[in-house]
Structure formats: structure tokens, C-alpha cells
Amino acid sequence: MNSGFDIQPFLLSFRLAAITTVMLFIISVPLAWKLSQTxxxxxxxxxxxxxxxxxxxxxxxxxxxxxxxxxxxxxGGFIKEILGLDLVFTFEGVLVASCIYSFPFMLQPLQSGMExxxxxxxxxxxxxxxxxxxxxxxxxLPNIKPSLLTGLIITFAHTVGEFGVVLMVGxxxxxxxxxxxxxxxxxxxxxxxxxxxxxxxILIAFSFIVLMSVYIxxxxxxxxx
Length: 225
Hints:
Elements lengths: L7 H30 L5 H13 L2 H12 L4 H10 L7 H25 L3 H9 L4 H9 L4 H16 L3 H7 L9 H10 L3 H32 L1
Helix pairs in contact: 1-5, 1-8, 1-10, 2-5, 3-9, 5-8, 5-9, 6-7, 8-11, 10-11
Protein name: Molybdenum transport system permease
Keywords: Cell membrane, Membrane, Molybdenum, Transmembrane, Transmembrane helix, Transport
Subcellular location: Cell membrane
């Protein structure tokens, strides 16, 4: 590993975070809508299952993802045979792991926002002949903008800061899986504290800006009603 500042781990982190955020947004919108509307007995099970990454140690989640995504497992072997994708120690594998690890950070704000939409608004939309699809995209989503932005921002930031899961599934391959958090870990191992400080301060500043943005959005939402 080359010591000294290198922009590539940050670019890789932001690329991973951007793709993860887009993929989770596409997956989470219909699932959050379904969970916000259902009274099924299976709802707590689904919510608990999706929220597991919040409480699980990243190394535990990373270990089982490493096992299940390996080409020696039925799932990993199937994906490699059908799609030709190796999901261990590759960017694609880290992307899959990131989507699973960051899933609750996108889903929960969206679901919470959708549950707060007045029922009368939904009834008015259906009365005007709008389908559930049109109601979701033309009525619900425009009315939960703070929740949307919170989900997008938190998911992006959380993915940028991932370490344990990425290390377990992707290792540290230059230009492929060596994201900023792993680069910091390696710099500390090399006793290059100066560069580690620079990397860390960049992530601290980034995290502060992200959290401040979320709080500003929430305060504006409360002040406007």
C-alpha cells in the first residue's frame, strides 16, 4: 500500500454510496408504502428483519454475507454460474453488502413519513380516480419530502462510513474495494498518523455537514407545520 494522501478511496466510497442510495431508494419506496398501509401480522417480522443491520455487529453481518455470497454457497455459486459475477472481494459484492447493511436507514424514514400522511388525502386521491401507483408517486412522495431527503442523506452518509461489512466482504483491494474507512485503518497500521488524520478529518467534516443538513430539514419541517 502507498502511504500519503490518495483521493481514490474517497472517490470509491462516494461511488459506492451513490449507487447504494439509488438502489435502496428504488427498493424501499414500494416496500415502505406497503408496510405503512398494511395491518398484517407479518408486519413486525418484516420490520424486525429489515432493521437487523442496525443492531447487529458489522462483523457478524459481514461474516454471514461472506459465507452466503461465496461461490461455494448455493446462492453465490448460482449467481456466478448464471451471471458470471463473483461477489467476494469485488466491488459488486461490496455493493450487495452495502445495500443490505444500509437498508433500514432508507426504509425507516420513508415508512415513517408515509404513515404520517393524512388518510383523508389518500381517500381524496382515490375518489378522484387515481390508482395506487399514481397516488404513491403524485400524492404521497411530494408530501413526504423531508422524510425522502432524510432517507437519501442518511443512507449516503452511512454507506460512506461503512467499515466492518466492507472489510469482511471486500477486503482491501486498491481501486476495487479499498474505501476511505479501510484506508484509514491501514494507515494507522502503518503508523502514518498524519495521513490518517487528514482522511479522518475529511470524514468528520462530511458527517457533520450531513447531520446538520438533516437537522435543518427537520427544523424547517416543524416550523412550517
